[in-house]
Specification:
Blueprint lengths: L3 H10 L1 H5 L11 H19 L1 E5 L10 E5 L6 H12 L10 E5 L7 H6 L4 H6 L6 H6 L2 E4 L5 E2 H12 L4 H4 L17 H4 L5 H4 L2 E2 L6 H27 L4 E3 L17 H8 L5 E9 L8 E6 L3 E2 L6 H13 L3 E2 L1 H14 L4 E3 H18 L3 E2 L6 H17 L4 E3 L2 E3 L2 H5 L12 H21 L5
Parallel strand pairs: 1-9, 2-7, 2-8, 3-4, 3-7, 11-13
Antiparallel strand pairs: 5-6, 8-9, 8-10, 12-15, 14-15
Helix pairs in contact: 1-12, 3-4, 12-13, 14-19, 15-16, 15-19
Length: 452
């Protein structure tokens, strides 16, 4: 007997059969003008809000069937990346018809109020019914759901489609109040799809919270939807347009590159065109004040992807993106402090600290060939960066100056504070993980050069 999970994996592995049946979507006539307008607006936001440094743009050939992959650092990623690539070819060719792989939650009721505008509460409640699906699809932005967990609101909408307006007592495996606090078991689905339960509806669950019969039905429908979504993007690539994908599928909450989701390999398998994969890296100079510098680095295009195994594809993509990362002052400072803290120390001389940062920046840039923030390699520019770094640390109470020495909290630097996962990692841990990811990618590339 084949298990349900095995059957679903088999369906995913045969995804190319489904892609041929799915035509590429056609956005409305007004979508092109909206995309061009937003390309102007986003470019202005990026230039005004950030000190954007672009490297390697000449490596973007704008070839038909280009899949653009980038690490996912913040919600500003697409605002910085999309207009940069768009205007590099004046919006012509495949980049002018760029399609975006987006999280399913963006197409659901409540996204605008729960995620984009949670405050003030009265305005968030007023905008709760707003659904951005039409505008997003006009921008050629299409959803793809996570393979397992989904927002409760989306799950209830699927049950409505499958079985109608059931009561909560009929759909949940356990007591409904554990999932929807305050909701009576006899309430129907339509009665809880409003603002009163918006926080619970925006929580993610897997399908095991529902009765066994519903769980099987919903899982089967869900994986069929995933195949349909992947087939849509494969069809877009087959027509010669470009697609943007964050292969991690989620933010890098700890600074290191997250595991690549299966959707990347499935999409490559489904496409019948000879694809081009463009790796891009975004590195934010996070530990600073004022207008932050962002390094957008475009790498060499990868070809021949369809002949690669999933393991090889994931490895090559992660390596290609990560090794494009830029070394920043915050990364170097965090790594040096971790080394000091691991020896049991909780302070160091400021002069020694600065000297170590400059020395390591020069070594990585000139001896190892890393991309390093060039300001760290010039004395006057380094001093300005140092002052802004110190101002950031004082503001966040990350460092304390005692004459010529700097003290710090060892637990915070080493990441043992808040290690239960309930609190976000400290800036020290995040930045040190960023540098460790860049170094690991360079070492992998040196040991086994990638195939272009």
């Amino acid at each position: 007997m084949i298990s349900e999970q095995t059957l679903l994996e088999l369906l995913l592995s045969c995804g190319g059969l489904f892609a041929r049946q799915i035509p590429a979507p056609r956005p409305p006539w007004w979508g092109r003008g909206l995309r061009r307008t937003l390309a102007v607006v986003f470019a202005a936001i990026g230039r005004l809000g950030f000190d954007l440094q672009v490297r390697g743009l000449e490596q973007f050939s704008n070839s038909p069937g280009t899949l653009i992959v980038c690490n996912h650092k913040t919600d500003f990623d697409i605002i910085l990346l999309a207009p940069t690539l768009y205007w590099s070819h004046r919006g012509r060719g495949p980049i002018g018809r760029l399609a975006f792989v987006a999280a399913e939650r963006m197409f659901q009721q409540g996204y605008f109020s729960n995620y984009l505008l949670p405050r003030p509460r009265w305005l968030s409640r007023l905008l709760y019914p707003v659904n951005l699906s039409a505008a997003l699809q006009a921008l050629r932005t299409y959803p793809i759901p996570h393979a397992r967990d989904r927002k409760l609101g989306a799950q209830l909408a699927d049950i409505m489609e499958l079985k109608g307006n059931l009561t909560l007592g009929e759909i949940f495996r356990g007591p409904p109040e554990e999932i929807l606090p305050g909701a009576p078991p006899g309430a129907h689905i339509t009665e809880v799809l409003g603002w009163s339960y918006h926080q619970a509806l925006y929580q993610e669950h897997d399908y095991s919270i529902f009765t066994p019969h519903l769980e099987r039905k919903l899982r089967a429908q869900h994986f069929t939807r995933i195949l349909s979504c992947l087939g849509r993007f494969a069809a877009i690539l087959d027509e010669g347009d470009a697609v943007y994908l964050a292969p991690e599928g989620e933010l890098e909450i700890e600074g290191n590159f997250e595991e690549i989701k299966a959707g990347l390999a499935r999409m490559v398998q489904m496409s019948r065109r000879e694809m081009v994969l463009l790796p891009v890296n975004l590195t934010y100079d996070l530990m600073t004040t004022g207008r932050r510098r962002v390094f957008l680095t475009v790498g060499a295009e990868l070809r021949g992807l369809q002949s690669w195994s999933r393991e090889r594809l994931d490895d090559q993509v992660e390596r290609a993106i990560s090794r494009l990362g830029t070394v920043t002052l915050g990364q170097l400072a965090s790594t040096i402090l971790q080394a000091v803290a691991s020896e049991g120390e909780s302070s160091l001389a400021e002069g020694f600290f600065k000297e170590q940062i400059q020395r390591e920046a020069a070594r990585l840039a000139f001896k190892e060939g890393y991309r390093v923030d060039e300001r760290l390699l010039r004395e006057e520019a380094f001093e300005r960066c140092w002052q802004r770094f110190c101002a950031y640390c004082r503001r966040r109470k990350l460092l304390e100056w005692q004459g010529e020495r700097i003290s710090f909290a060892r637990a915070q630097v080493l990441g043992t504070a808040g290690a239960d996962g309930e609190e976000p990692v400290s800036p020290w841990v995040y930045s040190a993980n960023e540098l460790a990811t860049i170094i690991a990618a360079h070492k992998k590339a040196a040991a086994a050069p990638e195939v272009m």
